[in-house]
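We modelled the chain as a single entity of 789 amino acids. Its sequence is:
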Amino acid sequence: MSTPSAADGAATDADSGTVARAASATAPAATALTITDLTWVPSGRSRPTLDALSLQIPAGQRVLLVGRSGSGKSTLLRALAGLLDESTGELSGSMPLAGRPGERALLLQQPLHAIVGASVGRDTAFGPENARCSRPEIQERVSRALQEARVVGAEDPRTSADSIPWELSGGQQQRLALAGSLALEPGALLLDEPLSMLDGPTAQSVRSAILEAARGRTLVVADHRIEDWLPHMDRVIVLGDGARILADGTPAQVRAQGMLGGSAAADPGRADVSGAGNADAREAAAREAISGEPAAEEASAESTPAPLLRARDLTIRPRRREGVSARAHRALPPLLTGIDLDLTPGSLTAIIGPSGSGKTTLLRVLLGLDSPAAGSLEAPRGADLAFVPQEPEHSFLALTVREEVTASPWVPDATDVDALLRTAGLEDLADASPYTLSGGQKRRLAVISALAQRPRLLVLDEPTVGLDAESWAQQQALLDSARAEGAAVLVATHDPRLIARADAVLDLAAHRQDRALATGPGPNPGTSGETAARTLLRPIRRRPRALTDALNPLSLLLIAAAAVAGSFGIATWQTGLASLALVAVLAPLSIRTVRGTLLRLVPVGLAAAGLWWSTMLASELPAFTAGSALLGLKEALRIAYFVAPGVLAFTSLDPTALGDALGGRLRLPGRPVAASVAGLVRAGLTADVWSRVLEIRRLRGLDARFSWRHPLRSSVQLVRTLSSTTLAVLLDAIRSAEQQALAMDARGFQQAQRRTWALPSRFSVADATGAGVAFGLAAAPWVIRGLTG
């Protein structure tokens, strides 16, 4: 093995504790992990991410991986899970292969990409389903895992197994991903930045849960904030470029080598690494790059500038969810009350609070994307306001890094792009695609793109998540440069280092109506009857409900297929009109909200209108005559009848229930069904991603709207904006699908040739009615055709 000799010492020193834990644990047997001479070169890269790496981790050992961003920690975790795909890179050497589904559970760094279920409970059940557990065992595992990961229980009484995963906060999603890993009861738990999006108390609570769950298991954790992990670890491995092992031993041995104590890994906020100590020079360079002039003298400490943003007694409601009417949303109890905030030039203000406390919701109000329920707000808008989202990719507009910096029309011509790139350490990547950068590089690019606009107010959502010491220092230097230029900086963050540097802190826990969340994490809720009932798996319950919600998914598919069959009976426009009247009569059965139903039917109407027009032009009858118009009308009514019933019925289609029906009742092959269900769940996020991307483009000055005063110019701009938004959403979907596939394999999908389904797919009396509706839709056009001759 090519690791340093300290590795042997680490294994020896840890053996006694490892054996003791394994002997006393009730968890599945711990799994040993071995990599031999492994080299991995991702597609499109010339240098290996893993370079001839050999590593042995004994069963039950607890290992902490430390290293700067890009050192290969995430790739090493994938290799230990046996999930490096030779179709996406060049692989040589050997890596461990799982002996059973879920034997090695990998928790990815981006929890949103790991979501595969339409509810919290069904997402957690995905792994046990792959492991072919029985339904009672799946229920037990899901309940236990959700409680161990603190997804449900004391932190947020509103979060339960019925909650929708993508409506959770980033921290809640991270706990959900952890629950999905714990539900597999793995022999090895491989965690990539498991606490990066959690506030301090919650992080401590979840860390305790991880360590408790790791009893008798092998545990490998990659993290940048290591001090709280060290007392619980048997071994620390420090990685350099290409995953070259720089140090390997017990925490005491590695600290004795000068690799931990007082180092960047221990506290990136204090460390001086890779030029981070030159923060003053970086700030000065950034000021000159933004303004085009040398940095001005500091303002007098005695002056008291007027606030750039002033908020008084704001009341904030939760974000409006799909299917909730405006009246029902206004009736919701407030999320936050009594918010007072003043942001002065040059200040740094931190918004803090437990995961899910409403930080992002408050930012949306301050940015002008949502309106407060009450109170007054005065804030900069337009070019004076810049925003960096939690997912920096959603703000990207250009094809290269250089073009991205000046993509906003609000960037002054005097901006020195090269100086900004140097300040962010991106000068060598000026011609690269923004999407190919590392996580830290993407965040720095998003920040300098915002700074290039020279805003008076800079707002950032979790700007330091997952950054190593060097990236953290570079990011902080950029924020300091914005402050030195007179901008007010507002951050929503869990990062204690960033909070410590803030001039003011707004703690949302003091403004929550729900005090149960404001108190932060409580003790493990255990398995009380109340909690067990809350985590019980059951079909998704939508609000508001439609009558078609009571139908089995197979009945919904039958209704759609029946309408297709019936459409071939439409031979005249009269038959089509009478048949569509039947659809109009049945439509209220599936309507949740009038607005949502009309939006779903708009594409049907556009398709029908297009078919009417093309038929009128292409038919053998003279164009624009009564005969050709009626022929086109018949075809338009046929296509509307063909599609509309399915569109209406599918508003009640739950992807996971569809999987239960196809895989559990019809016994179709489990892997294709499960993959299709995961894809449908992911497709449900498309509208949300589209909305976020459009909002960020509007905040960057690219809000294209049609203008009757300038119809041609505004139309061209509108097409460009919609095209670039479509491309951004498509790229996001491709990246998300790749990560989701990896997350599915990490939860046992790769080995699941056969699988079980967490819930049965039952038929009820309502399905008999649904069958009657289907028969009517299939027969009505033919009956009407026969009666009318």
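As a brief sanity check on the tokenised model: Confidence is low (pLDDT under 50) at residues 1-26, 262-301, 515-534. The two ends are 85 Å apart (CA to CA).
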